[in-house]
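job 3f2a | input accepted
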Amino acid sequence: MLEGLGLAVEGEPDASLACPEEWAVRGLALLGDEGPWIGVNPGAFYGTAKRWLPERFAAAADVVARRAGAKVAIVGGKAERPLGEAIAETLRAPARVLCGETSLEDLVGVLSRLRLLLTNDSGPMHLAAALGTPLVAVFGSTDWTETAPVSPRARVVRAEAECAPCLLRECPIDHRCMTRVDAPRVASEALELLAS
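job 3f2a | predicted structure (196 res):
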């Protein structure tokens, strides 16, 4: 941004954040134990067009949790609690629904404790990227070239669709940009990332 304004800048851009220890302790208290934990962030404030299918989040999380020997923490806002609970009900892995239970500081603490986050394009995605938490982000209606997570430990998964990115809040047709992304692909990306 500074270069765009014509200012001279030096060095590589750094968008990283360090989680204060107090926040990390609060995150651990919310999780309940050391885990290991993977996270699922199934919401997106901007609208449903940005949301991958809940049953696919559950399927991908189950594969990753089983292979990593992890539990699943589902994060999001208060309005996303029913979505989080629906995902938790279908998981085989032990799960903790934290939707609506975290302040911003608590969320940072939880994200800092995760081995991996499966997410939509959202604020928590950017927080996790800044914290260095490995993540796999599913993109559909938003422009991945503009809002992709800034992190070498992030993977973007998307499917070609003639209408994407549309930048709409709600899909007026069949949500093909998201339905074309399957759970095995997301799980595979996540497992590769964990192994690297």
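job 3f2a | The longest strand covers residues 37-41.
job 3f2a | closed
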